[in-house]
User: Fold this.
Amino acid sequence: MPSPATADRRTVWSWCLYDFANSPFTTLVVTFVYASYFANVMGADHYLAVGSATTEKEAEALGTALWARGVTLTAVAVALLSPLMGTVADRGGFRKLFLLASTAVAVAGSLALFRIGPDRVFLALAAFVVANIAFEMGMVFYNAFLPDIAPPAKIGRVSGYGWGLGYAGGLLALIVALVALVQPEVPWFGFSKEGAENVRATNLLVAIWFAVFSVPIFLWVREDKSRISLKGRILTESYRQLRETFVEVRKYRQVVRFLLARLFYNDGLVTIFAFGGIYAAGTFGFTGEEVLVFAIVLNVTAGLGAVAMGVLDDRLGGKRSIEISVWALLAATLVAVLAPNKVWFWAAGIVIGIFSGPNQASSRSLMGRFVPPDKENEFYGFFAFSGKATAFMGPFLLGVLAAQFGSQRVGISVVIFFFVAGLVLLRWVDEDEGKRAAARS
Assistant:
């Protein structure tokens, strides 16, 4: 494939379009539309039918808990699978093949969610878990292309372009889903509201969107296969490579320090994404429509921020860009916790949106600067591990504090701890040493 210094624009934009392709899965399935439908309708109706709940509120709580178990199972599976599968992809030259397989399974899972009726709740949950695991594993192999296709001096902005297009894709798909399927009295394209077919059809939109816009990466982004292991020894070589990485961990100590810091600040970001809408509704009285507008504004500002800060990333470095974003997120969270009214909360939310995209984009680009040329998939497997291994801690602690003090404000304040811990640990990351160890500077 072209070297990072000579990678052409078609290669870069084909790679970026994959973010545009897969983001509707996160926006429509995991976060907003199908997740809400599953928890509050499918799951709730099931628990009312079997007698496990006597009120709608209890049933919705049980449905939410069931969905949360599916998300947790995904996190555990990805955390366990990603380092090994990444290493196998490195040794076997399977990066694009694994990306294609992951994409196909995620698309098939989305199609299955459309076809599964409202009375088959556990089958729907199983289809979601399989599709979500495939989606997350696909991101391991997708991210691993970044250091190969982006020139070193532009890796920050290329990562930012990808994140920006991703937010744009998620937002556009959300608007299409709402306008054409969810909100109209008569859904478009002949779908009906019976059995929530119009809501389930949003998964069909996700599948088509994902399949169509992911085509360019498979056509025009080539994979470096110069370091493939001998045939029949791929698993042996993969285990050997993993062992060597752990044995030589001191050589990659900046990667370890960075991923440890990311464990914390990423948990803070995950918690904000998971509970921002709930906090807005419960503490500030946002209506469903206001929560939706809030989500749209956050997507727009996050996408714009990711693109704008990508250029700054290349000038200041990944570590400095991450620190700036975490400081801004910390300040905005503090304002959100203390906000006396909606105006202050809106201001905090906009700042969170502006800096959440850059935080994710710069994290991906800094990892790209630290990855040795022969271990891209393996190291991005560890990157995925750092994003999932403790992702349950923020929501868990938020729930404990909110229940203990009877206050969502106290619960959401736990995010401050995660951002502070991340900032403290980032101080020990030496970006220059990390690049020297990776031999990419």
